[in-house]
Design goal:
5-stranded antiparallel beta sheet, F-box_BR-signaling, mainly beta, 10% helix, 385 residues, Neuraminidase, 5-stranded mixed beta sheet, KIB1-4_b-propeller, KIB1-4 beta-propeller domain-containing protein
Length: 385
């Protein structure tokens, strides 16, 4: 008997016909063929509560997860999931390996797989971390990046969680040790260059990396045992030639930098150029250009317009790569992006043609209820079925 068949049998004795139908549809959506062993990468973009307005974010109120499959370009709604008391009045600030990082209360912090649409196979897991650092003002209330050394689902007891706060602090937590946390204070002379930085964990180097706001330097740690973070200078080669109009566009755009590692260990630095725009629906908003640099030896970065069969996923999640050929419908040599802070929008960017394209999702019922605020949309990597 297949996993999906046994799951349906176990669910059928517990769920109403309506709820069972919704769960069956979810299974068919996420495992459409008999040869499929993983889900597609998916975009989690909102969660809504079903009920009276006064029930929003009440423990136990039924919720719907709103997803988007970029390979099929269609919406997916996972319904009838009770809202957990652990997430009441929380804010979702990022994700890694499909696990969301949530802030709530004065200094509380936790990770959970609640936003993973397959978490209903068992109950969603909630893993509290040590308290956030006690910083001046709201510095510990805002997060610019999160990363994890591995997924808690992989049952590696020593996995680490890194959180970059808006202030000068990067915190690294070891969930298996209730006393293990390390708060790195960035020196004043480099703080201004790393304040809004994203994080990435390199499986190849077994280090956390953070890119400077100018994109010319990296700051790295090897985990809790590290006492000396390393500072790396990047050297750029094969830079493209720009026309005057292109230079004006780049100079007038807001720019962010993202380091991403492919499944084979190849690293890329991505520069994302945005002109502020109000992103409406699933359009590409203010995203104007990406520039991709392939890492060669000794931190040498070479401009490229060809990353082969890979596609990159950028958003409020830790960046990741997948092979497009493993997920029919995905475009190779592309960047799938989501952002709302500066009007980045939702879309896919062809690296070869230098053009962004808005998604064209198939219509679906949007459901009823009220959307929970302060939950950042993010990409979920493929999950095993």
């Amino acid at each position: 008997m297949s996993w999906s068949s046994s799951l349906l049998l176990s669910l059928s004795s517990k769920l109403s016909p309506r709820k069972l139908a919704l769960r069956c549809q979810t299974l068919r959506t996420f495992s459409s063929t008999t040869t499929t062993t993983t889900t597609n990468p998916n975009l989690f973009y909102r969660v809504s509560c079903c009920g009276e307005k006064g029930d929003v974010e009440s423990p136990g109120v039924m919720t719907q997860l709103h997803m988007f499959d970029p390979a099929k370009e269609e919406h997916i709604i996972v319904g009838d999931m009770p809202f957990p008391k652990e997430l009441v009045e929380s804010s979702l600030v990022g994700s890694s390996h499909g696990w969301g990082v949530f802030l709530w209360g004065h200094r509380s912090l936790l990770i959970t797989d609640f936003c993973n649409p397959l978490s209903f196979k068992s109950k969603p897991k909630f893993i509290p971390l040590l308290l956030r650092p006690d910083l001046i003002g709201c510095q510990a209330e805002l997060v610019s990046g999160v990363a994890m050394s591995s997924s808690p689902d992989e049952e590696e007891e020593d996995y680490l969680v890194a959180v970059k706060f808006t202030g000068r602090v990067v915190s690294i937590y070891k969930p298996s040790d209730t006393k293990a946390a390390l708060h790195y204070i960035l020196p004043h002379n480099v703080f201004d260059h790393f304040e809004p930085s994203k994080l990435m964990y390199s499986k190849r180097d077994q280090r956390f990396y953070m890119v400077s706001s100018g994109g010319h330097h990296l700051w790295s740690w090897d985990g809790l045992e590290s006492t000396r973070p390393e500072f790396h200078e990047l050297r750029f080669h094969n830079l493209p030639q720009f026309s005057c109009s292109e230079l004006q566009l780049l100079d007038s755009s807001h720019r962010t930098h993202h380091l991403v590692e492919s499944p084979s260990g190849q690293r890329f630095l991505v520069k994302w150029y945005v002109q502020s725009s109000k992103a409406l629906g699933f359009n590409c908003g203010g995203t104007k250009r990406f520039m991709v640099f392939r890492e060669e030896e000794d931190m040498n970065m070479c401009y490229t317009e060809d990353i082969g069969d890979l596609c990159i996923f950028l958003g409020d999640n830790e960046p990741f790569c997948v092979k497009a050929s493993l997920f029919p419908g995905l475009n190779p040599n592309s960047i799938y992006f989501i952002g709302e802070a500066y009007g980045e929008g939702y879309g896919v960017y062809s690296i070869a043609t230098r053009t962004p394209r808005s998604f064209k999702p198939k219509p679906t019922s949007s459901g009823q209820g009220f959307m929970i605020r302060l939950w950042a949309p993010h990409w979920l990597p493929p999950f095993p079925l």
